[in-house]
Amino acid sequence: xxxxxxxxxxxxxxxxxxxxxQHASLKECEKExxxxxxxSLRGMVDDDLFETKDRQLRKRIExxxx
Length: 66
Hints:
mainly alpha
C-alpha cells in the first residue's frame, strides 16, 4: 500500500511538472508571436515571412493549449 501511495505521488508530481513546462512554452510562444507582430508593424519582416512564422506559432500555441 505504501508503494502504491508513493507511485501515485510521483505521478502527480510528474503531471504537475509537465503542465508547468507546457504553460511556460505556451507563454513563450505568445511572446514570440507578439514580437513577430511588432517586427511586422515596423517593416522589419515582409508579409510572406510574417504569415509563415505566424502560422507556425499559431499551430504550436493550439497544440500547447490542448
